[in-house]
Amino acid sequence: MIVRLDSTESTMKDAAALAAKGEPHGTVVVAERQTAGIGRHGHSWHSEADGGLYMSIILRLQTPGPTVTMALGLGVQRALDDLAGISPDLRWPNDVMLNNRKLAGIMVQAADEALIAGIGVNVNQQSFPNELLGIATSLRIETGREHSKDALMARIIAESLRYVQIGKGGILRRFEERSSYVRGKAVEVDGAMRGVTAGLDGDGFLLVQTSSGIEKVIAGGVRTLS
Question: What angle do CA 156, 160, 161 make, to 5 degrees?
Fold first, then answer.
């Protein structure tokens, strides 16, 4: 089922309300505009009308930890590659990048016995607020043409639901293959720890080689260093 809204505070909140009523795995809420889009670590997601794709999917599955987020990233990456002819990168754990700028973001939250997967894709925006210049981009900016949000949504739903069923081991292998960020990138974590990314552990957490040894990043802001 797909629930379409002209405007909402957050599709994640709407999807959580539907999950509480028992709506099944794969139910989608999509909106033309969000007034309070949710990002990680309390950040907002810029959600102007008409430009982006703002959707949330109800997931009822057993895949643990950050693996679900990575599976969704793989699904979004594959959909963008197929429909727009681009080759985006994946930044652990939840960002889809193109030319070192964010093209899409993913957030997963627990809601009762379900997971709510929020996905935001910058599709047809032609500009961004000053605070996002240099760090955000859109399909239209990158390709010079307008794209169908309905076609993209359908492909993202299909690919995302396929990837979350692969299983943890398969997801981790594919993410390491499709992301340039998980190995060999100089990074800073939460403005403090610095090192070089050294792959993923068996649960999907990021490993960073620091001057004092290997550190595991369970949560926090990971920023690449130039």
Answer: 120
Nearest to 11 by CA among 42, 45, 60, 61: 45
Burial 164-175 (b: 16+ CB within 10 A, else e): bebebeebbebb
* pTM score, whole prediction: 0.89
Give the rounded percent of residues in the chain with a pLDDT score beyond 90.
67
Q: Is 26 helix (H, G, I), strand (E, B) or coil?
A: coil
Tell me how many degrees the CA angle 30-178-209 measures, rounded to the nearest 5.
115
| 80 φ/ψ angles, rounded to the nearest 5 degrees | -65, -40
- The whole-number pLDDT of residue 122 equals 94
| CATH T-level topology, domain 183-224 | SH3 type barrels. (2.30.30)
Strands 183-189 and 114-122, sheet pairing: unpaired
CATH topology (fold) of 2-178? BirA Bifunctional Protein; domain 2 (3.30.930)
Q: Where are the domains of the chain?
A: 2-178, 183-224
Nearest partner of 175 among 203, 151, 150, 156, judged by Cα = 203
Instruction: Give the residues across from 162 on adjacent strands.
Output: none
Query: Dihedral of the CA atoms 74, 225, 64, 20 (nearest 10)?
Result: -80
Res 105 pLDDT > 90: yes
Helix 67-84 and helix 149-163, axial crossing angle in degrees, nearest 10: 140
Work out the angle between the directed axes of helices 67-84 and 168-178 (0-180°, nearest 10). 50
